[in-house]
Structures are given as C-alpha cells and as structure tokens.
Amino acid sequence: MPVKRFDKTPMPTQVAGMRAHNFLEVNEGYTEDHARFEAERCLRCQDPICVTGCPVGVPIPQFIHAVALGDRQGASRLLRSANPLASVCGRVCAQENQCEARCSLAGRFNPVAIGHLERFVADWERTQTHEAKPQITRTEKVAIIGSGPAGLVCAGELARLGYSVTIYEALHAPGGVLRYGIPEFRLPKDILDWEISLLTDLGVKIECNVIIGRTLSLDQLTTKMGYSAVFIGTGAGLPQFLGIPGENLVGVYSANEYLTRVNLMRGYSADADTPVAHGESVAIVGAGNTAMDAVRTAMRMGASKAMVIYRRSETEMSAREEEYHHAKEEGVEFHCLTNPLEIIDDGNGRVAALRCQRMVLGEPDKSGRARPVAIPDSEFVIPVDNVVLAIGTTPNPMLTRTTAGLSTTPSGCIVADERTGSTSRSLVFAGGDAVSGAATVILAAGAGKRAASAIHETLNPG
Amino acid sequence: MSRIVETRQLTPVTKMFVLDNRLIAESAQAGQFVMLRVHKDGERIPVTIADYDREAGTITIVVQAVGATTRRVDALDVGDEILDVAGPLGSPIEIPDGGAHVVGVGGGFGAAALLCLMREIHAKGNTATAIVGARNQDLLIMTNELLGVADNVEICTDDGSAGMKGFVTQRLAQLMDGQGPGRPDRVIAIGPMAMMRAIAAATKESGIKTMVSMDPLMVDGTGMCGGCRVIVDGKSQFACIDGPVFDAQLVDFDLAMRRNKAYAEQEKAAAKRLACAPAEAV
Ligand SMILES: Cc1cc2nc3c(=O)[nH]c(=O)nc-3n(C[C@H](O)[C@H](O)[C@H](O)COP(=O)(O)OP(=O)(O)OC[C@H]3O[C@@H](n4cnc5c(N)ncnc54)[C@H](O)[C@@H]3O)c2cc1C
Ligand SMILES: Cc1cc2nc3c(=O)[nH]c(=O)nc-3n(C[C@H](O)[C@H](O)[C@H](O)COP(=O)(O)OP(=O)(O)OC[C@H]3O[C@@H](n4cnc5c(N)ncnc54)[C@H](O)[C@@H]3O)c2cc1C
Ligand code: SF4
Ligand code: FES
After folding, report:
1. Please, are residues B269 and B263 in contact by the beta-carbon 8 Å criterion?
2. Position A75 confidence tier, pLDDT thresholds 50, 70, 90
3. Residue nearest to atom 8 of ligand 1 (CA)
4. DSSP letter (8 states) at residue A104
5. For site-directed labelling of A194, which of A4, A86, A221, A381 has its Cα 20 to 30 A away?
6. Where in the sequence is the domain holding A95, given as residue range(s)?
7. What does pLDDT average to over chain B?
C-alpha cells in the first residue's frame, strides 16, 4: 500500500568533507531497503501526471510498483523499454523540473524520488549478465554522426530494429559530453562504458577518430559507403566567451577545456601527460550544470577557494538542485548578483584577479528571468589564479560548414522536424543539442529515439 | 590505429613518419593537421600533414621532439602503431586558381608541410616557390623532396653552409625586389611563431597577401575547448576549425606566443617523467 510519508528517502552520499577531495561518485545509491521504502510512497495515480513530465514517457508508476514488490527484473524491463540510458539519466536528469515537478505528492509533500529509483533499478541491471546478441536482420545500413546521448540512443533503437548501425565519433572515445564534460564524481565512466557495451553487444560499430565533414563527407556516407539513412547528433560543444578584457590571459579556460583536460584526458591522474592548472583560488563564471561541474572539479583538483560568479540570483540558476546543494556542502562559495567586467593581468600575461560589479534584479528579460542591472560604483576585485568560463556553448560547426544543402538557423542549429528529426536533406535526420542548442541528456536521448522510429518508418514503411 | 610504414631521421631531433591511414590520405589537403595520441594516458597533439599519397593510402608527418609526447612519437619505428590519429582537421589553405606566383616559406618542421602545399599550388597552374631555412645544412629538411614538387626551391642557412647565407625573410625580401623567381603574388609561411611574425612584418607594406599557419596549444582539435583561440582582427578565432591558417597581418602574435608558454612548468615535469631532460629545440 502506498504510504503518505512527507519526506523523500535521502540519497546516501559520501560525506562532504571527504568527497570534496576525491573523484569518487558523490551519490552512493539506494539500497534495496531504501528503494522499496521509497517506492511505497508512490500513489500509483490513475492518471500519472509524472509521466507527462518525462521527455521519453517512462511508465513511472509501473516501474516504481515493481520496485515496491521487489521485482527488479520487471522494473528494469519497464524502465529500459522507454529509456535506453537509464543508468545515466538516473544520475544526471533534472527530475525536479520534469517528472518529479509534476508528481501528485509534490504540492504538500516531497515528490517521489523517481530519479533515485531509476538509478537504483539501472544499477541493479548492471550487476546482471546480459546475453544480447547482434540481431542484424535487415539489409539497410544507418550511419550515426556523434556518440553523445542522442547518437547512442538512436543507434541502440535502430540496432534493436535489426539495422546495421555504425557510429562515427570525432574524438578518441565515445560518449560526447557524458565522456568529456560530466565528471567522474557525478557519472562514473564505468557506467558510460557499460551502456556503450550494451550497444556494441547488439552489433553497433563505433568508429572513433572519424570527423564527418573532414575525414568522410556526409555525401560519401550516403553514396559510396551505401548508408540508407544518416542521423546527426553532433551536439553543441563550441564554447562561448564573454568578450571581456583579459579573457585570453594564461589561466583562463572555457569550462569545456577545463573539464576535458580533467575528464577525457584524465588530468586528475598524476600519470597523465595532459597538463591542467591547479589554482589555489579558482573562479567559475556561470551557474548551470557545467559551472557546478567545473567548480566542484576545481575543489577536487586542490583549490582552497572555489567560487561561482553569477550575475543573477540563486533562484535563476539553471543547475540541477542537487548539484547546487552538493556544491554548497562541499564548500563552494557562491557570489551571486556579481558580474565579471575584466580579468586582470599579473604583469606576465597570467591571471591575477577578477574585477566585478554588483547587480540587482530588474524587469524580466526575453528568457523570462529577471534582468540583472548594474549597481553604480559597486566595483570590486577578487584575487584569483584561474578563471573558468561556463557561459554556454553553441553547435559544433565542423559538419554544417562542410555539408551542402543542410539548413541551419542563424545560431548554427540544424533545422530538423521536432517529431521526426528529418532535415532539409532527404534521409538525413538530426537531433539533440545540434538541433536544440545546449539542452539536456534526456532531451537528446528522446530526439535520438524519435529519429530512430522515423528512420525505420521511412526505410520500411507499413 | 595507424601503422607506421616508413620512418626517416631528418635531423637529430626531427623524424619523418609515413602512416598507413587511407581515410585521411584520401581527404587531406595542404594546411590541415591530424591529432595524435600515443598511449592511453597520453595527450592529444596536433601535427601538420606534410604530405599525402591518395593511391598508397598514406600520410607523411614530421615530428620534432620537444617534449614528452613528441619524444614518445620519436621513439616509434616501422611496424609500430599510433594509438589514435584523427583528421584531417582544420580548413585547407586557399590556393589561387592559377597564374599566380605563390611562395611558401618553411622553417623547422614547417619545411615539410610545404610538400603537399607546393604540389597543390603547382597542380592548380601557379608557380610554386619554396623558401626553406635552417641554422645550418645539417638541419635543413626535405629539400630533395621539395625539389621534386616545387618550381623553385630557395635555400637559406644562418651560417651559409647551404644556399644563401641569411634568414628566410632576407630571401623573401630579395624576391619581392624581383630577384630570383621574382615577386610573389601570395606568401604562405609555416614554421616557428617568431619566423611567421618576421614574415608578416616583411610583407606588411607590400600589400602581398600573406598567410601564416598558427600552432597554438590544442586539446581536442575539434572546436570543443577553445584553448586554441587566437586573436585575428581583434576577434577570437579557434585555430582548429577557423584556421589554422590566418591572414598574417591580422594575427596578434604577441598574445599567441605568450599563450603557448602556458604550461612550460608542467611540460617539463612530463618530460622528466619520461626520464630525460628537455631537448634543445631546433
Ligand atoms: C559539463 C556539462 C554538464 C552537464 N550536465 C548535465 C546534467 O547534469 N544533466 C543533463 O541533462 N544535461 C547536462 N548537460 C547537457 C548534456 O550533456 C547535453 O545536452 C547532451 O550531452 C547533448 O547530447 P548530444 O548527443 O546532442 O551531444 P553531445 O553529448 O555534445 O555529443 C556530440 C558528439 O558528437 C561528436 N561530433 C561533433 N561533430 C562531429 C563530427 N563532425 N563528426 C563526428 N563526430 C562529431 C562530438 O565529438 C561529441 O562526442 C551537461 C553538459 C555539460 C557540458
Ligand atoms: C596546427 C598545428 C600543427 C603542428 N604541426 C606540427 C608538426 O608538423 N610537427 C611537429 O613536430 N610539431 C607540430 N606542432 C607542434 C606540436 O603539436 C607540439 O610540439 C606538441 O604538442 C608538443 O607536445 P610535447 O608533449 O612533445 O611537448 P610539450 O611538453 O607539450 O612542450 C615542449 C615545448 O614545446 C613548446 N610547445 C608546445 N606546444 C607547442 C606548439 N603548439 N607550438 C610551439 N611550441 C609548442 C612548449 O612551450 C614547450 O616549450 C603543431 C602544432 C599545431 C597547433
Ligand atoms: S505522480 Fe508521483 S505519486 Fe503519482 S504515479 Fe507519478 S510518481 Fe507516483
Ligand atoms: S583545440 Fe579545442 S577548440 Fe581548438
């Protein structure tokens, strides 16, 4: 029977003082007892409104009910039928803005911890042996460009439908942002590797170090190489800069560079060759997930002072709630309503300090969030060794710049149908951040899934 | 993985490698580079495609051992595999459609990069002149190969042990005065930053369109990190996707040179871990 308990069952975590200095996962995951206890809170609503908040329509009350009954096998089947990246999404989705925001319990009580339960089920699944065998039953081949969540999910869905699928990835390892951006302490790379192994077990081929638009053209894929359809999931990995003085000083990074040096190139290990700065005092500009990852990485790389500099207030931050709380617990300083004006030179071309200005919130702007307005004569200087800019990214242009006939928006996003992912070129589909601009893992996964169905319907109608 | 099918030691610290990589060989053009990684904790380093052979399915690179990664490459031999080779990256050099006198200036490993450039310039119906320089005759690289592809090869050495005694900039100035193969319509310089800056200064007043191939520090080479940004005409450009070749008169060289020294300390440490002291750069 559902139990009306006010609180969510808390997620066990590594203690803040310790985890702030290691790269082990912060959240330790529910035990079986935690999970059943929490699952019993679900009301199993007739009209489960939580599902409407899930971009891939996970059958939430059904899988939670299976957890409550101790049927982990059933739960995992239900979950995976809708979300092929459950072990990742259970860790990185902003459930508080999606399913959990809509949960019937959310008004008077805490919502059901849908995300934690998703993770519980997916983690159990990982301990089971898998006997997936390639089931390539069709003659058509499909090429996937980019191995982020959009590409991985699209590939998996098509492989399950019997297509022969090859993913082409520009970097030396697959996963997109899941590999180079999101740190180990939030998404262990073992988990990503396991998800990817499920795909390769299904017969999906992954070719790394191949840049479509450079190593091979899109046209070569569709003509010479005989691919019947192509899915583009090239993401939005191009970092933006502020355009303020001092941005090119040594010691200023984009968050992508900082996180890539640490994650993809294993900068946290003393044996890795790729160098990365170990500033004592590090300022991160921005307040999204990327900023939280960068600032918490800086702590773990040994900073004694790791700060977030954000021009709006805490309410406008776009980071997941959990990341913000974890960051605070770990000792990250938040300087809100603070706008960076200039990065100051130490006289030798390196960063010495950040000159900022205090802000107040004014009228809402185009995004609907309150516009920060500068307070006159409020400038001040914070001494820093490194500055990391986490102020957004735009679509990677390597493919679009070299491919004729592929329509893009003025901001470089590929124009694609919301429902099918079809683009201005026939048999070429696209989805994820490359279409939407920087968004979320689950939106990218959802787009990959819809495109896979559309590709199937196009190649094998009826 | 790319297998090394041929190597040649060009100078004590510079080695040529021919790599078996059909996909890159078929798509490479002059001015582009590859990203290499030699072991699982290794860094990704950019290396210019000196030449390609579409039929044989090979590319040629020339690596100068200056630090940990380049020395690891240097230690490889025929039959060894390079773990990761990704490319061709960067935008190809734009070459006039014919009838122009195009001069390529190469210094250090940059001389090797003139190989495919000269061939492409000539094939498009232009006159291809290579100016290559080094401290002395022993440090000159690829001159014979260049003789096979360029219309003219001009050699300069600091000590006069081969070709003209003097710097590449001096020979370029003579060409601009109408000597030798004559005034260039376009100049493309590939080599150490200091040399490229001197070339930019040499052609500045002449109005001759001059391009330089920038070599900032890179992490991914795919536009994802922004670490390779150079300031061109006051605007931030990513060398790996917007370049690496830019208009010489618009590049902020001072900034670029400063940024390349960002990791000097840690690079030394990485080199030490490799158990040898940093080699003198040529
Ligand atoms: C640091 C950070 C933290 C984040 N945290 C969260 C979070 O907690 N929760 C959340 O939901 N979202 C988060 N996001 C956003 C989320 O990661 C992205 O929205 C998502 O990864 C987009 O997926 P994608 O498949 O569209 O592209 P990406 O993950 O960007 O993958 C694109 C891939 O395509 C490759 N590629 C690009 N061009 C080519 C080409 N021409 N040829 C071959 N390959 C190419 C790239 O190398 C890359 O591997 C975060 C993002 C960052 C940067
Ligand atoms: C587009 C491009 C093309 C390149 N082509 C070639 C090539 O064809 N052959 C070749 O040998 N090298 C080339 N380089 C330079 C090469 O990438 C660097 O020498 C290499 O990354 C050094 O790595 P390392 O670990 O051996 O040395 P590190 O330990 O990283 O550095 C050792 C020393 O070299 C200096 N250095 C490092 N990177 C650079 C750089 N990018 N430019 C100048 N000095 C640097 C450092 O400041 C340091 O003093 C190219 C660079 C770029 C960006
Ligand atoms: S809305 Fe909440 S209580 Fe209702 S089914 Fe969904 S998770 Fe359970
Ligand atoms: S090397 Fe990372 S953006 Fe150019």
Report:
1. no
2. very high
3. A92
4. G
5. A221
6. 16-126
7. 89
